[in-house]
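Design request, tokens follow.
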């Protein structure tokens, strides 16, 4: 019996360690996974495929200000390599903004701009832009 109870105690110890390890994984993994999935969602294609999955930090109508470098300025959309946007928990990246409704001037590739944009159901719209 003594041997059995020792083995049982050892088994319980293993289970406890396993449980603690699992709990640690559960506590840490979702944070990393969430950050990763938010990064993925920031990809334009991903966002347009999942219009309901808005960034929780901002309401759809919020106008966000950021800085970046113009990569391409087209007739309907502009590509901007923007700096990190802590307000949205976004890392620096290049992304496209719709020019629908934009009334301001156009900028050339390479120009550093401060710009404002808002989220719409189809993606992100440029609201205003100016040189830094
Ligand atoms: Cu972006």
């Amino acid at each position: 019996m003594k041997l059995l109870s020792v083995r049982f105690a050892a088994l319980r110890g293993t289970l406890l360690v396993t449980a603690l390890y699992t709990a640690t994984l559960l506590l840490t993994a979702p944070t990393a996974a969430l950050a990763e999935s938010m990064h993925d969602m920031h990809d334009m294609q991903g966002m347009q495929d999942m219009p309901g999955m808005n960034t929780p930090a901002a309401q759809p109508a919020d106008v966000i200000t950021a800085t970046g470098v113009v990569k391409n300025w087209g007739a309907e959309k502009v590509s901007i390599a923007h700096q990190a946007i802590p307000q949205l928990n976004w890392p620096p990246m290049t992304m496209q903004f719709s020019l629908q409704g934009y009334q301001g001037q156009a900028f050339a590739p390479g120009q550093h701009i401060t710009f404002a944009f808002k989220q719409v159901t189809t993606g992100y719209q440029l609201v205003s832009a100016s040189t830094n």
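Comment from the thread starter after seeing the answer: thanks! The two ends are 79 Å apart (CA to CA).
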